[in-house]
Amino acid sequence: MTEENRRIGIMGGTFDPIHNGHLLAADEAHAAFGLSEVIFVPTGQPPHKTNQRVTSAEDRYMMTEFATVGCPYFKVSRVEIDRVGSSYTIDTLRTLRTMPEYAGVEFYFITGLDAVLDIVSWKNPEEIMDMCKFVAVSRYGYTHKRMEELPSELRSRIIPLEIPLLAISSTELRERIKNGRSIRFMVPSAVEQFIRKKSLYKN
Known about the structure:
There is one protein chain. By secondary structure, the chain is of the alpha/beta class. It has a single domain, classed as HUPs (Rossmann fold, 3-Layer(aba) Sandwich). It has helices at 20-33, 57-68, 89-97, 113-116, 125-131, 152-155, 170-178, 189-198, and strands at residues 7-13, 37-42, 74-76, 106-112, 133-137, 158-161. A six-stranded parallel sheet has the order 3-2-1-4-5-6, sandwiched between helices. β1 (7-13), α1 (20-33) and β2 form a beta-alpha-beta unit.
C-alpha cells in the first residue's frame, strides 16, 4: 500500500478504563478496512462528561499504552490530552491532518454505535464526515437498525461494522471495581495491574 492510499484508523474515547471490547473493535476494523494502523486517542477533557467524575488524563493515557503495547499496528496519541480545553473530534481530525506523517492518508474514525446515535450533538458532524470514513461498531444492546433514527444526510455516510459482541463497558468495569468484583479477562492484565496499583475507581 503506497503512502497516497494508506488507510489509518482513529479510535477515540475516554478509555476510563480501556477494555477488551475496545481492542476487539479496533482489531476488527483493522482487518475489515485494510488499515495499516489504528491510533487510539484518549480524550483530554470530554465535553459530554462535564458533570461526571473522570479519571486523570495521564492515568487513562497510561492504561491505553499498556493495553496496546503488544500489537504492532496499534498506536496511542496524546493529541487530545496535550491540547488545552474540551476535546472535540473535529479538532483532533484537523490536527492530525496537519501532521506530515499523515499527509494524504485516508482516515477511518472508529466508534461505538451508541456514540454514533448521538452524533447530531457533536461539534460539526458533517465536517467530520468530510474528513474521514465514519465507522459505527456494533455494541451489546444496540442494533444498526437504530441508525434509522439519524438524519438521512448523516446516516448515509456511516459505515456499519458488525463485530463479535462483548458485554463489557467502562461504566460496568468501574462499578465492579468499586464493589470489589473481579475484572479479570475483561481488560488486559497490564491494565488490571495498573488499576490495582493506583487504586483507581475505589471511591
